Amino acid sequence: MYDVVLLTLGSERDAPGGCGSGGACCGGAAETATDPTSQTDNGQTDNGQADNGQADNGQADNGQADTGQTETGPTSQTETGQADTSQADASHAPRAEAGGDTERCATERPRVPVLACADALNARGARVEMVTARSDAEIDAVLARLDGPVRPDGLTWPDPDGKTRLVVATANDGQLRAVLRRLVRRYAPAPSKRPADLPGNRTLPDLPPVGVLPLDPARGGTHRDLAAQLGLPRDPAVVAAAVLDGTPRRLDLLRNDGGSVTLDGALLGAADDAGRPLHWRARVEVDDAILTDGDEPLLACAVANAGGYATLDDVTLLTAPDPADGQVEVAVAVPVVVRSAFGRKRVRLEVRRARGRAVSVLPREGKVPYLDDGVEGELTRKRSWWVEPGAWAVWSI
User: Fold this and answer.
1) pTM of the model as a whole
2) Spatial CB neighbours of 120, under 8 Å, sequence gap ≥ 6
């Protein structure tokens, strides 16, 4: 029978913003302030460290992305090699909401879904341990139980035949991302230690599957978290069954040269206090396709692994995001002036799209607010994302 660790991310105090949004929960500023390898954008933490193969002197391993220019590599492709364009009325311009998920972090007392899941696991004979982690070090102590034996090359990778399974209780996608970031940090080899048996389109081995236990089974609203998008169970008993009897469903992972990861997607842009979208400029490249060269104003940019940021208001940014297709889908919303048949000028919103293996966004001026898996940040320098096909997995029925 399996040993199951039910992991909840906690803090010494409740705070809004979700795990990793600024020190209130593990992976935030309070933790990374003691880590000399942590990367920041204008003093903002990005929930990641830039070592163990995540970023090497500002460059991503395996030729997938760097801080100067996005490399295409032998397997990179764009969708027909061209930027797809579509039109939307500017009267329905998208709004990048100022706040991310405002769920509060877990506290000392286990939440009801955690207790219910533990009961269901115990009833099936599993040995269950409930752990609340308040720091990256405490997350790492849990993840160490997933290690396999040391390989002949000295690397320690996940044990594919291990009897320990992990369930992450999540109040928001940012908390799940915090755990996956630590898995990447633990198992991704440094560029100098890259083994020959690692696939050419990957910088890390297959990460061990995780069970996802949403802490808000009755969640409403228009935004669907990653568990809802993937069709994962929300009932604690069904989550327990998936962990014990289900099969791993492998999914793509986005890594970036800031040392972090993205599971769902990132949305760049913001609105003012009156709800009007703010214009900003950036050069956006997807492999060899340039969606914008940085000379024209933008209203939004979506970098997608899944569909959490597929629409803003009634504007469709992404057409078919798929977290298992081995590609990142990117869209930019550009206001353009057109003339009617009567000579009148009007503004329309042009949405340009492309798919590929890697994307880079280079801000031309000032700070660009963004949400990455629901966690707020500000981009002040070039950021590159690249896809790791099938790198992580969830337990599903």
Assistant:
1) 0.79
2) 236, 237, 239, 240, 241
Rg (CA), the chain: 21
Give pLDDT tens digits for 23-45.
Answer: 334 433 333 333 333 333 443 33
Q: Extract the tokens encoding 79.
A: 């969708």
Question: Are the C-beta atoms of residues 378 and 44 closer than 8 Å to each other?
Answer: yes
Neighbours of 385 (CB within 10 A): 30
* Residue 82 DSSP code: S
Nearest residue to 292 (alpha-carbon basis) of 328, 322, 336, 257: 336
User: Are 75 and 201 contacting, i.e. CB atoms less than 8 angstroms apart?
Assistant: yes
For residue 241, pLDDT over 70 is answered with yes
* Residues 337-359: tens digit of each pLDDT: 776 666 676 778 899 999 999 99
List the single range of 61-65, 138-142, 161-165 with lowest mean pLDDT: 61-65
- How many whole angstroms separate alpha carbon 218 and alpha carbon 201? 39
Beta bridge partners of 126: none
Instruction: Tell me the DSSP string of 156-185.
Output: --B-TT-SEEEEEEESSHHHHHHHHHHHHH
Exposed (0-12), middle (13-18) or buried (19+): which is 164, by Cβ within 10 Å?
middle
Q: Could you give phi then psi for residue 243, rounded to 5 degrees?
A: -70, -35
**Which residues, 6 or more positions from 52, have their beta carbon under 8 angstroms from its beta carbon?**
185, 186, 188, 189, 190
Q: Is 190's pLDDT higher than 60?
A: yes
Q: Residue 116, SS3?
A: helix
What do you get for the CA distance between the two ends of the chain, in Å?
18
Q: Give Cα separations from 140 to 12, 45, 118, 253 (angstroms).
A: 18, 19, 21, 19
CA–CA dist 200, 68 (Å, integer): 22
Tally the C-alpha atoms within 13 A of residue 30's C-alpha that lie toward its C-beta.
15
Q: Contact 361/268 with Cβ under 8 angstroms?
A: yes
Residues in the chain: 397
What does the pLDDT read at residue 43? 37
